[in-house]
Write a structure and sequence with these properties.
235 residues; Heat Shock Protein 90; Rossmann fold; 2 domains; five-stranded parallel β-sheet; three-stranded antiparallel β-sheet; 7 helices; 31% helix
């Protein structure tokens, strides 16, 4: 058995109540929509699954907030780990079923989309996905930046795609501010919330705030194209 320990002395630490949930998917100690720390709450979950696929375990320990944390990974040194063991781990992972996607997606050439997400990787991913369908996409890293872009060029964008959980100012606040604008100032831009907050309550809140569509991440390229097509009136 090989044991690897990583210690963050004097770091942020983990509250005792949250410690049992630290490896769960989409779980964060601060789950508020306007939390200061960005991210989806997937990092440690991915670590856990990767370690399990190699037949090992990973544990977390912390004395509390502000006390740092220690993560311990234990991996077997054997090279003949049974294939069935790996397969059982794969089968235990509850991946979401891919939603149905329309077979025919109309041309999106010339459609202009404003993407809002505080995660650089997500912004780049959405732009790359949309580019495959001829969409002209621009990205903003915050609600404040998105409002500035929209106010400066209110007629430049046909569709808004926004994350919900962003630091300082969330997606709900963004769309509410946009809906107070006049139509000429971009206040009626069709908008979709693309978010890891996927509960029914989250969907209802997104629609009530002013989004036309609520979509749970992750989103497939064809799904994203279909959403843009619907909002842009191409279907």
């Amino acid at each position: 058995m090989c044991q690897l320990g990583v210690r963050n002395v004097g770091g942020k630490g983990i509250h005792p109540d949250f410690l049992p949930h630290v490896f769960e998917r989409f779980r964060q100690a601060d789950s508020s929509y306007s939390r200061k720390d960005s991210g989806l709450g997937l990092g440690l979950s991915i670590v856990s699954h990767l370690v399990e696929l190699h037949g090992g375990t990973v544990d977390a320990d912390s004395s509390g907030e502000g006390q740092g944390a220690t993560f311990t990974v234990r991996l077997p040194l054997r090279t003949d780990i049974e294939e069935s063991s790996t397969q059982s781990v794969l089968e235990s992972v509850d991946f979401a079923n891919e939603p149905a996607v329309p077979a025919d997606i109309p041309s999106l050439a010339g459609v202009r989309v404003l993407v809002v997400d505080d995660e650089l990787d997500m912004r780049q991913l959405f732009i790359t996905m949309l580019d495959q369908y001829g969409v002209e996409a621009c990205a903003a890293a915050s609600a404040t930046e998105a409002l500035s872009i929209l106010r400066a060029n209110p007629e430049k964008y046909d569709v808004l795609l926004s994350d919900i959980g962003m630091p300082e100012e969330n997606g709900y606040s963004l769309i509410r501010q946009i809906r107070t604008l006049s139509a000429e100032a971009g206040g009626q831009i069709p908008a979709a919330a693309l978010t890891a907050y996927a509960r029914d309550d989250d969907r209802r809140e997104a629609i009530a705030a002013g989004f036309q569509i609520h979509v749970a991440k992750p989103v497939l390229p064809a799904q994203l194209a279909s959403i843009v097509a619907a909002l842009a009136g191409r279907v």
